[in-house]
Amino acid sequence: MKFIARMLATTAAIGIASSAYAADITLKFGHVGNPGSLFESSVNNFAECANSSMDGKVEVQTFGSSQLGNDKELLQKLKLGQVDFSLPSSIMSSVDDKFGIFEMPYIIRDRDHMRRVQDAMMDTFQGAAEANGYHILGLAENGFRHITNNTRPINVPDDLKGIKLRTPSGVWRVKMFQEYGANPSPMAFSEVFTALQTGTMDGQENPYAQIASAKFQEVQKYLSITGHVYTPAYIVGSQKHFAALPEDVQAGLIDCANKTQDYTYEEAARLETELLDVIKAAGVEVNEADKDAFVAASAPIYNAFAAEVEGGQEMIDQVLGLANPG
């Protein structure tokens, strides 16, 4: 009986070890998305692809809701090798000004336009990422951003005057809202709900997927549909640590990143309708903003980008030139 017990114990221990070390390589993917967010579903899609398509060589483990840190902390941890992937969005404009092109108001018209920009200009963005120690495996999305607040409906830029507005950590977003007359303050996404609830901030701006999954509709009175900025998200790793992976693993992860972009775009389009209804159902007052007024007020931001960023005007011209196919 003792022999059988020892055998059973040994078998159990082997089973535990086998499951713990089933994959040759374990990779941590940290992000700030809450349960139900587009970030969460995009990261999970990437992980499922990687874990099922490389013959058990890789296990991608996902950690959402800022468990492993906010966007800034995750970018630092990538370089230290403490995290293998993250999904930054607006904060990339603080990594390199070239990413600030996506902070220009209304410069991206739709997802097809974004794909054309990606096809034509990805070398520029990859070069900027690698110059700062990162490698972009592929793109996902944060989405088209809209403004919520507790002060008043926002119809034109002047309605933002005096409103304390949370923004992501990106210099161009702050400049844009300063130009519109708001009082913008960068803040980690994980802190926003409490800031809105306590009145530290009057409002914030995000895509519907982030608004609804973070339950901002529970602490905001007004949603103004502005669509002022489209923000891509970037499936990012450390250039050094990603290059150290076996070449077939690198190729497999890049393939999964490309597949995740297709999934993300389809899911984002679906959520745009579904989640607006969720926000309205919470009693939030919704209005369509005067986008022409916002476009007219945005000229100084474009001028500043052209003047302050090397090659800025050329980037603006190239992106705008890709707005229509053909």
Description:
It is a single chain. With 326 residues, the protein is α/β, with parallel strands linked by helices. Helix content is 49%, strand content 16%. It has 13 helices and 13 strands. The longest helix is centred in the last third of the chain and has 35 residues, at 247-281. The radius of gyration is 22 Å and the shape is globular. Residues 1-21 have low confidence and may be disordered.
Put the structure in a nutshell.
This protein is of the alpha/beta class and 326 residues long.
Topology, element by element:
Layout: H1 2-20, E1 25-30, H2 38-53, E2 58-63, H3 71-80, E3 85-86, H4 92-95, H5 111-131, E4 134-139, E5 143-144, E6 146-149, E7 164-167, H6 171-180, E8 183-186, H7 192-198, E9 203-206, H8 208-213, E10 222-225, E11 230-231, E12 234-238, H9 239-243, H10 247-281, E13 285-288, H11 291-297, H12 299-308, H13 312-321
Parallel strand pairs: 1-2, 1-3, 7-8, 7-9, 10-13
Antiparallel strand pairs: 4-12, 5-11, 6-9, 6-10
Helix pairs in contact: 2-10, 12-13
Beta fraction of the residues? Answer: 15-25%
* Strands, count: 13
Q: How does the overall form come out from the CA principal axes?
A: globular
Which regions are unreliable across 5 or more consecutive residues at pLDDT < 50? 1-21
Lateral strand order in the biggest sheet: 8-7-9-6-10-13
Structural class call reads alpha/beta
Rg (CA only): 22 Å
Instruction: Give the H and E element order.
Output: HEHEHEHHEEEEHEHEHEEEHHEHHH
Helix content: 40-55%
Largest sheet: 6 strands, mixed
Report, as a whole number of angstroms, the end-to-end distance. 78 Å
The overall average pLDDT, rounded, is: 93
Treating each run of at least 4 consecutive H or I residues as one helix, how many helices?
13
